[in-house]
Amino acid sequence: MRISRNNLLTSLTLVFGLMLNSSSLARSVEFGQDATGDPNAVKVRGGSGFLYSERIIITVGHVIGDEINQGIAYWERDGVIYRPGIVTIAGEKQYKVKKVLVPSTYVYPDYANNIIIDDLAIIILSEDIPLTKKAVLATEEQMQRFAREKSKVELVGYGITHGSQRNRPYEEMMNRPPNKLTGTLLSPEAVLQFYRQYPNVDWQKINKPGVYGIVQHRELMQSHICDGDSGSVFFVEEDNVRYVLGTTGLGLVNNNCPPPEKWYGFPSMSWIDPNSKLRDLLKTAEKIVEEDKKREFAAAEEVRLAAELKAKQEAEAKVAAELKAKQEADAKAALELKAKEEADAKAVADKLAAEKLAATKAAALKKTTITCIKGRLVKKVTAVKPLCPAGYKKK
């Protein structure tokens, strides 16, 4: 049943914050579109995050933990992140968390009393997650243009899409698909005009100069953020670049999360502060990542140079070994050649000696014929060593 505007205004009750207990402060997209495979949305335990660069994830402080120091200690000891856009973590590569940054002024949110102070956090990883969608922090000039042109604002979160999903086991929570919310950005002036249209809203109490707004309109069945979505990021995409406006953690007034559990009678709104400490946190994180990569490059260079030196030494040793082997082979060949030449010479000499001996022997065994005479008698004698008979003389 659609409620008339007059009835809405009559029954309007202003409730600052999200009126949720501390275990359900993270919000999720209701009526959102399935965003499985989104290139930047990551799971951050019970909340969400945004992969800003290969090693930097934007989220909010209360997702890190109720006790921020204990939460940081846990994340820097055991924390892991998975690639963006997944549904289930089973079988996924784990990317180890190195460091968590939060503003020194951060206070755990008290939504019931509308106390939200610098609810921001940056997770720095020990290694790169492949980044397929570039992200940059929008300037205030760009935010003014986005508001003026009514550019489409998007947010991808990992939380519940229906109230029945609240207080489910952690394993189920970590195996939900991401969902996308879409809306438009209101300028700071439009934010005030938005609240002025509801006479029962004391908008002076929620007036934060310079704060932009993103409306989630239940009457139009548009998306709402709810349990599990804290830490996700509002962005405008242009030319394949996502311009980050801010996180869900700055503030959300009168969240209808998710109806019909609670309906405040008018759309809820997320605040975006262009002067938040997100920019400073990102600069600090980028400096840490830069120094980490310098150290890693230096270490990699040291390993590379050591490997090159070892390879060079092994190559030189191989060349030396090959040269030595060649010299030894040449020496062996020379010896073998000399031995062969000596053997050939000896064989020739032996052959000549044998031939000479054979010739000598042949000569020694050769028969000759002599002529012997005795008076008028003549007699020829043929023998190896012919001798004239007795009484004959050799002619």
Q: What is the strand and helix layout of this fold?
A:
Elements: H1 5-10, E1 33-34, E2 41-44, E3 47-53, E4 56-59, H2 61-64, H3 68-78, E5 80-81, E6 95-101, E7 107-110, E8 115-117, E9 121-125, E10 134-137, H4 140-149, E11 152-157, H5 170-173, E12 179-186, H6 188-196, E13 212-216, E14 233-238, E15 241-247, E16 252-253, E17 268-272, H7 278-364, E18 368-374, E19 377-383, E20 393-394
Parallel strand pairs: 10-15
Antiparallel strand pairs: 1-12, 2-3, 3-4, 4-9, 5-6, 6-9, 7-8, 11-12, 12-13, 13-17, 14-15, 16-17, 18-19, 18-20
Brief overview, please?
With 395 residues, the protein is α+β, with helices and mostly antiparallel strands. Helices cover 33% and strands 25% of the residues.
Strand content range: 15-25%
Query: What structural class is derived from the secondary structure elements?
Result: alpha+beta
Total strands: the figure is: 20
Order of helices and strands: HEEEEHHEEEEEEHEHEHEEEEEHEEE
Structure annotation, total helices: 7
Mean pLDDT: 83
